[in-house]
Amino acid sequence: MKDEGIFGGNQAMLRVLDPVAESKPAERDQPLRALEALDKLRVALVWSGHAATTKFWPVLEHAIGDRFQPREVRRFYKPSTWNAASAKEIEEIVREADYAIVGVGA
Amino acid sequence: MRDTVNLFKQGFPVVGLVHAPFEKLARLQAAQLGVPDAPIFAYPQDLPDKDSAEVVEARAREAVERAARFLLGNERVRQIANAESAANDHRNVLCSIDGECGLISSVYEAADVEAFTTLVFEQGWTDGFPVLPPTEQRVRAMLDACERDPYEIVGLIPPGDGIATIEKIAINAVMAGCLPEHLPVIIAGIEAMLDPVFELNRVQCTTGGPAPLAIISGPVVKALGFNYGPGVFSGNGARANAAIGRAIKLTLWNIGLGRPGQLSQATFGHPAGYGYLLAERPPDDENPWEELHVSSGFSSTDSAITMFPAGSHLQIATGIGAKAFDDNLQVIADSICHLGHFYAATQKLVVLNPQAARTFHQAGWTKQMFRDALLTRCKRRARDLKHIGGVSTTLANHWTTLVDTSDDEALVPAMLDEHHLQVMVAGGWASPSSPCLIIFSMHGEMVTRKINV
Q1: Which pLDDT band holds residue B255 (cuts at 50, 70, 90)?
Q2: Which residue of chain B has the CA closest to A32?
Q3: Are the Cβ atoms of B3 and A52 closer than 8 angstroms?
Q4: Taking CB atoms and an 8 Å limit, are B136 and A17 in contact across chains?
Q5: Residue B199 covered by a domain
Q6: Where in the sequence is the domain holding B70, given as residue range(s)?
Q7: How many CA atoms lie within 13 A of B49 on its CB side?
Q8: B296, B347 contact by CB (below 8 A)
Q9: Rounded CA separation B262/A25 (Å)
Q10: Count of domains in chain B?
Q11: Which of A97, B83, B215, B441 could connect to B347 by a Cys-Cys bridge, CB 3.0–4.6 Å?
């Protein structure tokens, strides 16, 4: 094979490979669970626990309770602000709630 | 953000809240994860010590109304997302391998080195330093030295979730100036960082701006010509140190897309962000204690790479040999226990120079005794720690979870156990000041993988 030299300079035209990876394509979606209203449903509250939101999040939870009177509240307080919830936890939310409010990205 | 995306992908009614300064990051990450229209909305950044109760209440009520609008309007957003998803399907090049095409990455052409360099910066393939052209010849030579299928997927590297195939890693290794025999080291390093305890997504994204430190130990240190002596962290002329450290960085840059101002929100970043690698001194060259990977359960005949999610890198003058051991330990413990890093019991790495290690060893100290002595000393009283703020209290081992916070005199440990205090020997011979290093994990923990050479 022809020596390219350290910068590939012996070739008339440099042909180089793309170092950027493809991303995982979005998975085919499940049908949307359409919601007509939010009242009296089961809500999942998924909190990142970020330090800046320790005052806001409880007030938000209270406001959600006032506004929608949820039939059931499932709280998912994450042990790590920066790690995504596990697939098992996501399945649990999907199974045990009608909608979710996630926060706070900070 | 990822939780919102993962729920949304399942057709689940969800809305995600994000602080306004991080809205761009959230939207870029959602797009990169294939859901450009994920239901997220931004609101002004909370300042818990300054916001009045009325402000917080009003902000929460407004957030609830906006959340309702998103949740009840999901169907329109869903239709857009479906269209995007379909448009993305053709990008799955891993499904389009045919015949003898061999390498599957896209090919770019450049007339010469200058044109190539221009292309590199136009495409964003580098963090600033020029790189070598990843020609097919070079990439194939790299792959030929590694008994791994080029299409094998090592994992998805966050935050962009780029598919890290052996081929893509090899391309980035060529760009960094690696030799073919370096590739197994890099692959093992990538595998280590993908262990969840390393928290790679955080390392790549957080405002804290950490940098993954690669630590090489075992026979491979001499076999590949790593510099483990004087100037071990600086430009020291060793190709293995510089090129492998750089290849790991480029892999995170080009496959994980952890790029500042885009998917990375590092406030300052890390001065070693271009490449951060440390080789441990071998047992037959002034390292009296067991090597790092041996302390982690590997054999002394194994070669290993340990990836450490490094935050701060602090060089201190310990005076080992010039003062009593009690003084030396006090200096190290005081340096570990400063308030800026005491928000949680996180992992620390103490790097002793060979003069320091020999001094302790000749006095009968084992590595275990050294660790135990530091673990006993590295504590602060709760009253001091009450000055700390701004760091999530939900962090594992946050100091408030370790003691009774109503007791001002309670002693809070900086590290929980010996796993949280790693010790190794590297660098050149030291003067009586005996400079040593303390490297602080921002939160995640180091992971060690055997290098299959």
Answers
A1: very high
A2: B11
A3: no
A4: yes
A5: no
A6: 2-91
A7: 6
A8: no
A9: 20
A10: 1
A11: B441
